[in-house]
Amino acid sequence: MQAVATVLPFRVNSYVVDELIDWDAAPDDPIYRLVFPQADMLPKEDVSRIADLLSAGAKRKELNEAANEVRAQLNPHPAGQMDLNVPTLGNEEPIPGIQHKYNETVLFFPKQGQTCHAYCTYCFRWAQFVGDADLKFASSEIDQMVEYVRSHPEVTSVLFTGGDPMIMGEGVISRYIEPLLEIEHLEAIRIGTKALGYWPQRFVTDPDADDTLRLFEKVVESGKNLAFMAHFSHPNEMAPDLVQEAVRRVRNTGAVIRTQAPLIRTINDDPGTWETMWRTHVRHGMVPYYMFIERDTGPQDYFAVPLAEAYDIFRNAYQRVSGLARTVRGPSMSATPGKVCIDGVTEVAGQKVFVLHFIQARDPELVGRPFFAEYDEKAAWLFDLKPALGATHFPWEMVPEGGSDGLIDLPRL
Fold first, then answer.
1. Which residues lie below 8 Å from residue 173, measured CB to CB, with a gap of 6+?
2. What is the pTM of this model?
3. Rounded to an integer, what distance in angstroms lies between the CA atom of residue 133 and that of residue 131?
């Protein structure tokens, strides 16, 4: 476990340890597996190499070099985060801490928010937390962020992400949020956070809890939608009275809480868990929003559920809940070309296929367009799939036209 934690980030707090983990059930308890590294999360040879260095009392520099070699094989920045999503102001250098993949939404990574109250073992942004400056994505340049949003009228929402923005105190987070309230074309401010699950005290008993809620009220009173993108990975995270009180207080500010999580093997990979989680969220006034597929980064091989199985889990849970919970979308893959949803498995012209569509896309023309992929019971990610029904390429792919150097869009199914 220590060898894995040398490569991947590990952090846990007293609330998770004392209130969420059933220690009589460990190591099978889902919250335990959610935060504590497992020995088989990485290839055996890599774990053995690091473990041997630890046993031999290797110096920190040697450990870091070995750990970095393992990290480099784990696709630390998937979906073009570093090379495709980073915008510029005019013809200047890329703007640090901003990603602009979809026209309507800008992601901002506030420097002070690039850690969490506890770390999820499956986190696709693990590279933010391992102490390597080349892998970290963050900025404290508030003016640059505001200028960029102001100069792009197509941007209707800003998502504060991390890490966890709610690790920041009210005095810090307000400096990022308040300037955005003056931008007329901005309709919504989103906060991606797991604080409700990992540290609900942030909204109830922390010294600046009341000030934070007043900031939320100020956002709503300005005419902006405040969307709390709350990460809940298991229904057990909703059990304590404290988190239920935190949810009530956040909702009372006028904020909308939307819930999302990835489907993770050994933690929430059965329909009953998702059914219970969605129904619990609706009961407490939250809106089920996304079931994600584990991204192609970090220990994906350990946590990933095959797409065919993921669809069955989603469908079986979805059919057991009322329409109030059927706001949820998924299973969804946040891949390089966009958010791809698995709509079903069916047979067309004698061929068994996946039916998919883009919920969101780097190319807006792809949004809402259905397409097909050959059924593959082992495929766990978009790029494991092959086009179906005689197609040679997927809709987002480009191919040379004749013998020229030009590129054309492929015909879409």
1. 110, 113, 160, 165, 166, 212, 215
2. 0.89
3. 6
